[in-house]
Amino acid sequence: DTDFLMPDSTIHREDFVLCVGSIEHIKGHNFLAKACNELKLNLLVIGNPLEDSAVMELQYEIDKSEGRIVWIDKSISFTNLIEYYKKCKIFAMTTKMDVPGLVYLEALSCGANVVASEQGDYKSKNPKIVRCKLDNESIKKSLMKCWNMPLGNEGREYVINKHHPRNCVQLYEKLVYEGKWNKDYTLLDKSS
Length: 192
What we know:
alpha/beta; 7 helices; 6 strands; globular
């Protein structure tokens, strides 16, 4: 709900990267944690443990981080999550999934700059998303580019223009009724 997911100029942005999602290999937390460790960036991970081996890989990076990586290993309320979106400097998830995940859209709507892997909807133009490949150097380069970007409302405008339910319905109707799918098919009676 974009009415709750809004930037708040009264909340000070803090110098940390936020990653939200269950701890499993497909989400790539270990890639992000390794890059943050090497860059000496603070990282807050919020997510339930799902895969033991993914948890072990994340924990390995946490143990090396000298306290810079913190993991909240359970779900938190949506209200609390919104506050983290509003406080983080960057939201990042180096996922292998091909999705325009809600967490990315929520973070953008709250004014965070975003690092996202190259899959899915994030190939589209958005001045607040920096894309990365799933290798350490690309992730580090994207994190630093995103870290140095000014904050602004462009990400929220993108979410509302492209993903708000009201606009999605209009885009769908335009595609279906005015696009290539708009054809008048007649069923032929083949019973004779």
